Fold this sequence. Notes:
By secondary structure, the protein is an alpha+beta fold. 32% of the residues lie in helices and 34% in strands. It has a four-stranded antiparallel sheet with strand order 1-3-4-2, covered by helices on one side. Mean pLDDT is 80; it is low at 1-14.
Amino acid sequence: MKLLYIAFAEETDKNAFSSENKTVVSSVADIYVDDSEEGGRIANMLTALLNSKFSEYENSSIHTQYFECENKLRVTLWGNVDFVKSIFEILSDITQK
């Protein structure tokens, strides 16, 4: 298995979640793409979303890996429920084409 690239974005600190928001979610999604270029576009878009500093994305992280031999982008998410939900909605929209 050849690992082509890893992208990482994080916005966390030791006081990551307030008393109102105690739930932390982690999830992994495998997205099969046509080629590394498509995988790179998706990874870059997700990283840009997290780095845009939307308030619901605070204290969250995204890790992406592209597996060239499988044409697979693996997306690992960590954050509050609203963050993970919004990322999955975005992934659903861009992969349903």
